[in-house]
Design brief:
Oligomer: single chain
Strand order of the largest sheet: 2-3-4-5-1-6-9-8-7
Largest sheet: 9 strands, antiparallel
Number of strands: 9
Length: 248
């Protein structure tokens, strides 16, 4: 099966810390952010804290060009980057963008005493576009991942996930799934009929999530640091490139 050039469509950089009322620190965070990345982000948007889900963002910064957002919740900060079309096939350029933001994010955490970091990591989302149908792509992916006889008569789509431990420090979660894109204008459309003929693009999505939660779980007094996240970034990119080669 033929695939188009792989595209790195999205990346998440995340850092967890002990529960903190980040709303009270919004302007302190903004001051450090403006010092480390001047002119890159809009002023803080402060939202009510969720009492139900501590991971719900309560302070948000948006990049001037709109391709990235920085979220602070009661338990973590995350940088979400949606790469533009002209960046998606240039993995080195994407990696450089994310790498350049690791030090500023740690500077924020280190500059404000109330932040007590625990673990950190990165998640990468890659798409391999194909001209095949959902079922054809699923059977192809099944043949690549499974090495024994499988009943395929009624298979429509497949998804695989594997978790391993790298260097005695990192959880490496890798998943492969089949995606199909439709033009959904109104979110309520998901409750309507969604025939296969409306799919305008299909392929394989590979997600690589690498984090040092394993070290945090198993090493007494472990806390993440900038060098740990830098290494996680390198491991994540090398891991997803191996998966791309394996699937293609």
């Amino acid at each position: 099966m033929k695939f188009s050039a792989p595209k790195l469509v999205r990346a998440y950089l995340f850092l967890y810390y002990q529960p903190t009322d980040v709303r009270q620190l919004a302007f302190d965070v903004e001051a450090v952010l403006n010092k480390e990345l001047p002119g890159r982000y809009t002023p803080a948007l402060v939202l009510p804290t969720s009492e139900i889900d501590p991971n719900t963002p309560s302070v948000i910064f948006t990049s001037i060009h709109g391709h990235s957002m920085l979220f602070f919740s009661k338990t973590n900060l995350s940088l979400q980057v949606n790469f533009s079309q002209d960046w998606q096939i240039d993995f080195d350029r994407c990696k450089g963008y994310v790498k350049d933001r690791i030090a500023p994010l740690f500077k924020i955490i280190q500059s404000i005493d109330k932040f007590k970091p625990t673990y950190s990591g990165i998640t990468l989302f890659v798409e391999l576009k194909s001209e095949g149908s959902i079922r054809d792509i699923s059977l192809y992916l099944l043949s690549k991942v499974c090495h024994k006889e499988t009943d395929v008569e009624d298979i429509y789509s497949v998804e695989f996930k594997k978790t391993s431990v790298r260097d005695g420090l990192y959880f490496l979660n890798v998943s492969q799934s089949v995606y199909g894109k439709r033009n959904i204008i109104n979110p309520l459309q998901i409750y309507d009929k969604m025939p296969d003929r409306d799919i305008y693009e299909a392929g394989v999505q590979i997600v690589c999530d690498l984090n040092d939660r394993y070290a945090f779980n198993n090493i007494e007094d472990y806390t993440t640091n900038e060098s740990s996240l830098q290494k996680a970034l390198d491991l994540a990119f090398s891991s997803i490139e191996k998966e791309i080669t394996r699937i293609r």
